[in-house]
Amino acid sequence: MNLDWMKVFVAAFFEVLWVIGLKHAHDVWTWSGTVIAIIISFYLLIMAGKKLPVGTVYAIFVGLGTAGTVMSEILFFGEPFKIEKILLVLLLLTGVIGLKLVTKQTIKEGSEA
Question: In the chain, what are the domain boundaries?
Answer without folding.
Answer: 3-102
